Amino acid sequence: TSFGYKEVKVEEKETLVGEVFKRVAGSYDIMNDVMSGGLHRLWKDRLIEVLRPAPGSLHLDVAGGTGDVAFRVLESMRLQEKSCLNVSGKGSVIVFDINAAMLDEGRKRASARGIAQDSMQWIEGNAERLPFDDNSIDSYTISFGLRNCTHIDVVLRDAYRVLKPGGRFLCMEFSHVHDPFLQQLYDIHSFHIIPAMGQAIAGDRESYQYLVESIRKFPTQEKLSQMMASAGMRNVSYENLVGGVVAIHSGFKL
Ligand code: SAM
């Protein structure tokens, strides 16, 4: 049976997304590499370059899955901490995700990397209801996660709430391509190649079909910028990668 995603009711979306990521958790990292041709690594590196996480700070990576972004943030903090003389305390990262199976994969990866336990926390929950105090987080990322959330406006408002004044919000997400030629290539990739690869490699065409369809429904760069501003964020901007296949959105709590 098809997910029939277009007909799915809002209240069913969380269950659906939960099922998808539970199924793909074990093969998630390899599939990311295969389907993006390794590009997601460059995109995540770019995200960290834009973020420049402050040494000694507390970073929250929402929809953090298996920790890809969190590991990079931590690495970047540690590099800076080594070269800074007056940093009081070590920075740390919270990986926050709705799916326990994804977090379990992440914990395994963290221990395989020998990451100190006090550097990272893995917390399960919904991005719409963060279990953190107001004004408690220095920086917030959500990478390829916002499109899976049921109420984007609620996620943005809660992100704003937990950020400290001066704190930064960054969202990296598949977005919208304007160039018609690139659009055609992208359509072929997403509607034919991705579901076929999902079937061949993970034996799961439907989950990857869902991922493709969720990208279509995601707000345009302009619309998401407006939503961020409505949530209270300031100095809102975005950067397109590969002509808008991916966009990095930035906003501050001032
Ligand atoms: N951020 C990681 C990355 O860039 O590789 C993982 C992205 S993965 C495509 C999307 C993640 O969003 C999944 O781990 C899923 O469990 C999580 N997710 C979906 N809905 C969520 C929600 N409402 N709150 C928190 N996490 C959610």
Care to give the gist of this entry?
By secondary structure, the chain is α/β, with parallel strands linked by helices. The protein contains nine helices and seven strands, in the order αααβαβαββαβαααββ.
Mind sketching the topology for me?
Layout: H1 10-24, H2 28-36, H3 39-51, E1 58-62, H4 68-83, E2 92-97, H5 100-112, E3 120-124, E4 137-143, H6 152-162, E5 163-174, H7 180-202, H8 205-217, H9 221-230, E6 234-241, E7 246-252
Parallel strand pairs: 1-2, 1-4, 2-3, 4-5
Antiparallel strand pairs: 5-7, 6-7
This protein binds S-adenosylmethionine (SAM).
Question: Care to describe what's here?
Answer:
With 254 residues, this protein is an alpha/beta fold. It has one domain: Rossmann fold, CATH 3.40.50.150. Helices cover 48% and strands 20% of the residues. It has a seven-stranded mixed beta sheet with strand order 3-2-1-4-5-7-6, sandwiched between helices. Mean pLDDT is 91; it is low at 1-6. The structure holds S-adenosylmethionine.
Short key terms for the protein model shown above:
254 residues, alpha/beta, Rossmann fold, 7-stranded mixed beta sheet, 48% helix, disordered N terminus, transferase, ubiquinone biosynthesis, UbiE/COQ5_MeTrFase_CS, membrane
Percent of residues in helical segments?
40-55%
How much β-strand is present in the residues?
15-25%
For CATH, the homologous superfamily is named as Vaccinia Virus protein VP39
Tally of separate helices:
9
Rg, Cα atoms, Å: 18 Å
CATH class descriptor: Alpha Beta
As residue ranges, the low-confidence spans are 1-6
CA-to-CA gap between the ends? 48 Å
Mean pLDDT: 91
CATH topology description: Rossmann fold
